[in-house]
Amino acid sequence: MNINAQSIRTSRRLCTLEESLDNIAFDVVGISETWKDGYGREILQKSGHTMLFSGGKFGRKGVGFIVAKHIVQYLTEFKPVSERSCYIDITINKIRIRLIQAYGPTTSSEDEEYEKFLEELKGQMEDKDGKRRTVIINGDFNAASGSRQHESEPCLGPYGYGTRNHRGQMLVDFCCANGLIIANSFSKQRAGRKWTWRTPNGANLKEYDLCLVRSKKIIKSTYAISKFNFSSDHRMVKVVLNMKNIKTKNYRRPQKLETDWPLYRALIERNEEELRGLSVTLKYQKICELLKNARETATVASAKEPRFSDETLKTFIIRSQLLSKTDARSQIQLVETNKMLRRMVANDIDQKKFQKYEKMVAARKINEKVSTSTMFEILKDNGEVTSNPEEIRRRVKMFYEELYKSSTQVARRNSTVTVKPPEVIESEVNHHLKRMKLSKAPGHDQVTNSMLRNSMPSILPHLQEIFTYIIYEKQIPPALADSITTLIPKKGDLRDVGNYRPISVLPATFKLLTRVILGRIQGTLEEAQPPEQAGFRRSYGTTEHIFNLHILFQKAREYNIQMYMVFIDFKKAYDSVEDATSSVKIHDQTTPVIIRRGVRQGCVLSPLLFNAVLEEVFKELEWEEKQDYGLPIDGKRITNLRYADDVVLIAKDKETMQKMVDELVESMIAEKTRLPRVTRIAWKRKVNWARKVAAPIKKDIVGDWTLVSSTNTEAYLAEKNMGRFHDATFLSYHQSFLVNFRQVTQLHLIGNERNLIYKCD
């Protein structure tokens, strides 16, 4: 399919297009005039379809695709060429198809620009890698090819439409020279299903949206869809391929599912006897099977809540009826109906949005998205850029297996504790289960927190038995330790896989086990932490250390004290646990990764375990007893501040700072803690609080450490980013006329509460 959307830049236009596509069966929709800046890949939140786009710098022109959810798995490459063309490669049953989306220059542009556009299309048709493909070019060419004028035009069939213009002749010459045919002219349709664009006054009908292929045998039919409820002066063109060997799974539109929890609990109670007498491994697998079967039986599809009101839907029908009329009165009514429809769609979307805002205010969350950006291209080892999903998964697998490979031989320390830990009791499991949030993604076993909570008390004794066995025998069932890792983008070049944060989506049963263990050890581990460590501790936060740094700056300025700071960040900091497996999720597909080290981000034990290891390193240094280290404050010496893996070292001169860095590296090597390497050391110097060029710390630092820069500013714990984020968020809320004063007050309280604390000295 192909349509000139005349902008999907705003969330309103994108939501309207997504809603209109719900009523049409499609595999791929090509879009012209997206008006989106740059290029990227996003997943539409409601339907789950994938949108790929290629645009310019100033929000004009732009092309793209919406790929249906059942076709995404066959997508092998996406190449954003320019603001006028891009292509995707699809491979189904060894049949390679290249879909090129084009948007030609208008008739007001110069012929040289149109020739450049055609040459750009020619370059995308070439098989540079030696693989033969079926090439299909769709788009708005802004050219009327008309009917065949003589036999020397094999690119046109007997069913052309309208008269040819100058740009149409240029397009026909291009097709004849490159062995292409205009598929629209080979499809026999009535005149009402041929035209794709109508002039504003309704007097002229043109066929500007065309499909170019190399062989007419692959096209079954091509026609314009008259009843497509989307505001555009172009009609959608549907192209049906005639490829017998291509078989895809039928796509089912997502439905709103609701679970009958009383029925679910009754099914669990009825089948609970099947769990008795099984081993721990088999019992865990049987529990997962029992919960999923009960959930499937007790879940029914309910009617989806429409995005638009009944009045808006009726207006869509009126608009589609006016589109088929050409008299002057109907054209005036069509213009007014389009204006009214735009206002009604905007009001409906805003009403839905603010209904969500009320829930978000109650839950103190203000994040809401229409689509989610995903990784679609990556840098290979040789520096080349690839958008092939297979190569992306291979590169991610290699990167994380290398990252989590055990690089040091650390002897296991035998525990000297002879006291047997207390047995896990049912009330302990039930207590921690009630504290788990319900709206969390399930792990690979597809068991959610809601399923566990509603299976009580039937499953409770079996979970108690499994957890007690794991603690006593120190063995975890293999399936219970596996996880799915989702990559969250950070700052920097998103084509570099190192600029993604891996978050592990763990099984709900494993998270419950770790919470039980956390409840037993949290108090002991936190008591061993000094005040310098504020990361992931109760009654501590980032505001304390930001406040402390501001106080240090103030006192150093007041007493004219020279001060040096080194900001240290660890690469993929959680790095202590051996032998587990994970699956990295890329484009809804998972790639298995062998993990030889590393506590996982997403596990509640990871922060405390990392803090405990880091504290052992600093405890061996004994910096507090050295008079020339750090700064004296109220009878104590502050040598460092820590928030998990974000460490700040403090000294009064460069030589002492270099000595502190060297001692920290040596302590890490001596302890063999297997802490990850430091990837960023930005250091800050204040000399009499005057702007002077500081001499850099020596670069031959012991260990695998890297000096990044000497700087007079440093964004510590995302202080500046938080302020910018909330300022931009609330500026957008002020621009809406539907937000009442009460909602504005509540939203400001949520965001600016943090800003006030961050900025208070």
Automatic annotation (TrEMBL):
Transmembrane segments: none annotated. GO terms for molecular function: catalytic activity. Residues 469-694 form the Reverse transcriptase domain. PANTHER family: REVERSE TRANSCRIPTASES. This is Reverse transcriptase domain-containing protein. It comes from Caenorhabditis brenneri.
